[in-house]
Design a protein that fits this description.
The protein has 330 residues and is α/β, with parallel strands linked by helices. Helices cover 42% and strands 13% of the residues. It is built from 13 helices and 8 strands. Strands 1, 2, 3, 4, 5, 6, 7 and 8 form an 8-stranded parallel β-sheet that branches.
Length: 330
């Protein structure tokens, strides 16, 4: 499975007869390029307020059937501090597109967290070059912004009033500013083709992404896609495995959405190319409210339990918990 062409990728995605070989080859490449260590990133979902209308997402502004919250800058820093005390070497801040968190407010949070001994990743959506620069100057190390799909028509259908070119602009600006950049796609969006998933993987390579998050689409009852079918777990896993085989030394999380569709989803992903897990480090009160899709895992758990649980699972498959910051390996 060396030097895969677009046609090879399409063939592998369509045909299930070589899945076992595909997953074990991705596991080999993972071991060779990034080793047996698993990086844990402490995830803080700090606001579920969002001005966007993404058709698939439960946080979309038209959803009135959701209890909205915002965590204060002081409390965000406090959660980060507790996570660092628990052993996390990276903090990930994620939210809807909430304009309360202006560049000024974000920079205050970033500086507070960067006083701790941790790398910092942001995942707060589309912003201007100036905002991204301010966040970088304040100390942010990485940024996650999934392209969701590279099929422009489908992208525009899924994101009313949004501009595909602006999403690309964000990724390019972030690279230019020296962030480690993460992107990724949803697998199983209505009318998404296998060919477009192959293009997604080639796009990740083309922009030289440092991190790739792949997850199955899960229909949310309070969205226009409520009657659609869920994405397929195995297909999402295959897109992830092919991404490992093609991009080799990048960081790839075993995503929470994978575990929502399969009770052992994250461990299966870790054995098919993934090397990162992002446990939630906020208290129970916010977890159910950050409902991008239904049946999210661990919504009744607390940070200590999540850490112990995932550590035990990782050790049970013979892997180690990394104690470094987990930047992309050269
Ligand atoms: N506002 C930020 C963070 C979005 S939430 C941003 O725009 O980047 C993080 C990811 O959750 C999204 O990028 C999307 O891929 C995923 N997501 C949203 N709704 C989903 C659903 N219904 N099923 C599966 N994943 C979903």
């Amino acid at each position: 499975m060396e030097n895969l062409t677009r046609d090879d990728i399409i063939e592998l995605l369509k045909d299930d007869s070589q899945n076992k070989e595909l997953f074990s080859y991705a596991d080999e490449i993972r071991k060779k390029y990034v080793g047996d260590e698993v990086h844990l990133r402490g995830l803080i979902e700090f606001s579920n307020i969002c001005k966007r209308e993404c058709l698939y997402c439960g946080l979309r502004c038209e959803n009135k059937n959701i209890d909205r919250y915002r965590i204060s800058p002081e409390d965000i820093i406090l959660y980060a501090q507790k996570a660092v005390e628990m052993g996390y070497k990276t903090i990930v801040l994620q939210s809807g597109e909430d304009s309360f968190y202006s560049a000024e407010v974000m920079c205050e949070i970033i500086k507070g967290i960067k006083k701790l001994d941790a790398a910092l990743t942001l995942s707060i959506g589309e912003r201007s070059f100036e905002d991204y620069k301010a966040f970088k100057d304040a100390g942010a190390d990485r940024y996650l912004i999934r392209i969701e799909t590279t099929d422009k028509k489908l992208y525009e259908k899924m994101h009313p009033h949004a501009d595909f070119e602006n999403r690309i602009r964000c990724l390019k600006d972030l690279k230019k500013l020296g962030y480690e950049v993460g992107t990724g796609c949803l697998v199983g969006l209505p009318n998404q083709t296998i060919e477009s998933l192959a293009n997604d993987i080639l796009f990740f390579k083309e922009i030289n992404a440092d991190m790739i998050g792949i997850g199955p689409f899960i229909p949310h009852p309070q969205t226009p896609l409520n009657d659609e079918q869920s994405g397929n777990f195995t297909l999402a896993l295959k897109v992830m495995a092919l991404t490992r085989i093609i991009l080799k030394n990048i960081n790839i999380p075993a995503t929470t959405a994978m575990e929502t569709l399969n009770p052992n989803g994250r461990i299966i992903a870790l054995q098919s190319g993934a090397n990162v897990v992002m446990p939630n480090v906020t208290t129970t009160e916010y977890r159910a409210k950050y409902e991008i899709y239904p049946n999210k895992i661990c919504i009744n758990e607390n940070p200590t339990k999540c850490r112990t649980c995932i550590e035990n699972k990782i050790k049970s498959i013979g892997r180690k918990i990394s104690t470094d910051y987990g930047f992309r390996k050269n």
